[in-house]
Amino acid sequence: MAFQPTPMDISIAITTPSSTIATNAEPTLLTERRITPTWTVLQVKSKLETMTGVPPGCQRLRLKAPSRPDQWVDGDETIIGDWGLIKGCEIEVHDSRPQSARPNFNDLSSVEKYVLPTSTYESLPNSVLAWKKNQKLGRFDPNSLSPEESMLHQTEKDKVEIQKRHIVISKRAIILPSSPPHIRRGTIRFVGPVPTIPFPGVDITVNEESSMDSFPIWIGIELDEPTGKNDGSVGGRNYFTCPNKTGVFVKPEKVEVGDFPPLSLDDELEDEMEEI
């Protein structure tokens, strides 16, 4: 009996069409797979199911070989090596199922998501929360301020900064930090609480103006150039009026009041010459 050598496996590129609609779409490389030439086509399809997610009965294999025309591999019981399988070949796996019958693995809307209960998380000994408790950090620090106390502290700080910096409506100002040629200057249009800007840990929604005295203070500035974020409105509430993208709200410590006239065309040309 003559010795029959074991056929060498051949490394084949496995691809799928990048578009399930366009028939001439460029293929997408999935991976490489070593194929034994003596396998049947059905055996090959079974191996490819774990890579492509397409059931063997719904697969159509297109064999691409160097210097040869592409060919569709037919007959599940035929030997894959008989189709001229050589090194450098590519098998393109097509899904014959209609689009509606194919699972959409990108749609996560119907996937049930596990949410760890708060009580369970708080009982874990090796969580970040447990570490903070042990280190007495954040809200576990006995000397730390509550969110409401922190807000009142910020409000007092804002009032001091406003007095110290002489921040008054209609005065000219620049926003810090500023350095030529990127200096944002404008006119102060608003000084007061902005309840639509949230403060961490505190619900600052109010219904009465008198109760806003304890809220942090913001400075609304109408910029000379459209380098802002709004038109004087934040969270659907208007605090002052200016053209869109020229309004900005900053904290008092970011404001420097002074004689900052609006930039003229000559100033802009001079700045451009300095950059050159």
From TrEMBL:
Its main location: cytoplasm. GO terms for biological process: cytoplasmic microtubule organization. The keyword 4Fe-4S does not apply. PANTHER family: DYNACTIN 1-RELATED MICROTUBULE-BINDING (PTHR18916), TUBULIN-FOLDING COFACTOR B (PTHR18916:SF85). Residues 10-100 form the Ubiquitin-like domain. Residues 217-251 form the CAP-Gly domain. Keywords: Chaperone, Cytoplasm. One of its GO terms (cellular component) is cell cortex. SMART domains: CAP_GLY. It comes from Aspergillus wentii DTO 134E9. One of its GO terms (molecular function) is microtubule plus-end binding. Coiled coil: none annotated. This is CAP-Gly domain-containing protein. Belongs to the TBCB family. It is found in: Cytoplasm.
